[in-house]
Amino acid sequence: MTDESGGNRNSYDKNHFPQQADVLNIVLDHITQGMVVVGPDYRTLAFNRHFEEMFQLPPGTVEVGADFRDILRTWAATTGQDQQMLDYAIYQLDEPATFEFEFPQLINGDPRWCLLTHNPLPGKGFVRTFTDITKRKALEASLMKLSREDPLTGLYNRRTILDLLEEEIQRGQRYKHPLSFLMMDIDHFKKINDQWGHPTGDEVLKSFAAQCRSVMRENDKMGRFGGEEFVMLLPETGKTDAVLVAERIRKITAEMAVKPKRSSTPIPVTVSIGATTAGEGDDVEYVIARADEAMYEAKDAGRNRVICH
Fold first, then answer.
1. Exposure on the CB side of residue 25, measured as CA atoms within 13 A
2. Is residue 4 part of a domain?
3. Among this protein's residues, is 53 annotated catalytic?
4. The pTM is what?
5. Which partner for 161 in 123, 151, 156, 176 could form a disulfide, CB atoms 3.0-4.6 Å apart?
C-alpha cells in the first residue's frame, strides 16, 4: 500500500529508530520492578535503575560483569540479613525452576518487603525481578489483625481465643505443664450502660482490658468473649497462682476510675471471676464450662469475688 506521494506506509528508515540495545535499555529502566540478568558464571549481564534504587547498595556494587554472589553479600551486610539468609540466597542461584520468594529487609533503616521472581534462562543463568510489596504486606497484616482482634479493646476475639485455648491445652497435656483459665464478667454492666450510656460502657470495657494487660506475663493471653465477658489463659500456671492473678485483677478493677461525662465522680466497677486449671484429658468445652460455672457461683455469692473450681 502506498500513500499519496507514492511511498510505502509500512516501510521506514532504520536510521530514524534507536538500535535494539538502546530500546531494551529504555524498556528496562521503565519497568517498575527491579530487574537483573545473570549469566552462567554468576556474572551480571544487565540490570535496571530500579534494581539499584530498590536496594540502595553502595556505589560501584552493581556493575555489568560483577559477580552476583558478591552483590548478594553486600546486600546482606547492608539490609540486616543474617548468615543463614545469605547462604540460602546464594544456594537459590542454581535453582533450575521458576519460583517466587518474599523476604523482609532494611533499606536505610526502613523495614521493607520484597517479592523476588526467579526465571531460569536456557542453559544456565537467570532473570530476576524484584517488586516492592511493603504496602501489600501492611494491608495483609491489617486484615489479619481485624480478623483476630476485638476492635474495641484490641484483645483477641472469641474465635481466636478459643483456638489459642485449644493449642495451650494440647501443649500443656503434651509436656505435662499446668494451664489455668479465667472467666471474668464485669458486674452490673447492663446497669452501667442503661444509666450512663454506651460510650461510658465502652470506656469501662477498655479500661478493664488495660488493667488486665498490666498484670499479664509475656505468655499469658486474653480475649473478649462477648459483651462484658473476658477470658484469660495462664500457661505454666497452677491453681494457687491462678487465684493470685485473679485476685489481683479483681482488686485493680475495683480501683478503676472511669468517669462518665455527666458526672465528676468515678462509677464503681467490679468483676466476678471463675478460675480453673485444665486436667488430664480435659477439652476446650469442659474447661470453659468449669470456669463459667465458677464465675456464676461468684455472682451468686455476691459478686466482686473469685471462685476456683
1. 6
2. no
3. no
4. 0.69
5. 156
